[in-house]
Amino acid sequence: MQALSQGSVTIVVKAQDIAGNPASTSDSFMVDTLVNLTVGVVAGDDIINAAEAGAPMVVSGTADAADSGRIVTVTLEGTSYTTTVQSDGNWSLSIPSVDIAALADGPYTLNASLSDAAGNSISVDHTITLSAGAANLPTLTVSPVSGDGYLNASEAGSPLTLSGTSTHVEEGQMVILTLNGVTYSATVDASGNWSTTVPVADLNNITDGDYQVTATVSDAAGNPASDSKPLVLITDSASLPTLSVDPVTADDIVSANES
């Protein structure tokens, strides 16, 4: 039977009696020993971040179109959810956000199962990772710019360092910074630190005034973090301080009487 192809199979029986008279009959039957089921990528990357955990989690996949109307059961942490296979073989269901919120961060196994009309069954495991707990969300801190939040004419003659720290952000993640509409990037190191510089040419294009250095980063799960720090530029000659000394006497000569 294992050598038979899937689908309709015809069987023919022939016989003859002792006189040599022939007789034959035929019948057909279906061979159906296979059932297919797949589970698609969940949330785009199989990682559920805080924003995604705040909405119902969609789980979907495919089965054979011939199994249209059959029940697909998805089980997560002992709770089962069901849906039916559509006419094109696709299936989809949503796991309520309240059920996701009840789970701690970490990896989980989704189990999807299906039985076809012939009694064939299939079970498929699919791993997802939850990264949504407040204690594990990323943080980002921008260090005071130029040390004190002010950039003077002398400091503007050298590249300006923008740096800071992060927590719960994986090494290699990119920090995106913006100053005066120009974007810069830095890479998070193994300790969560990051740093980049603003070229002198860019500083020369910034007029004196108040600015904000904004920074954003996301962890591998897509959870975002941001921070900003003020920066005041005082570099233009018209803004620089001046100092003068009034004449000590009318002629800047101190006589004996004046002394």
UniProtKB/TrEMBL annotation:
**InterPro entries tied to this protein:** Big_13, Ig-like_fold, Ig-like_ice
Say which domain of life the source belongs to. Answer: Bacteria
Q: Which Pfam families match?
A: Big_13
In what residue span(s) does the Bacterial Ig-like domain sit? 60-126, 174-231
User: What residue stretch is flagged as signal peptide?
Assistant: none
Q: What is this protein called?
A: Ig-like domain-containing protein
Q: Which organism is it from?
A: Limnobaculum zhutongyuii
- According to the entry, what is the taxonomic lineage of the organism? Bacteria, Pseudomonadati, Pseudomonadota, Gammaproteobacteria, Enterobacterales
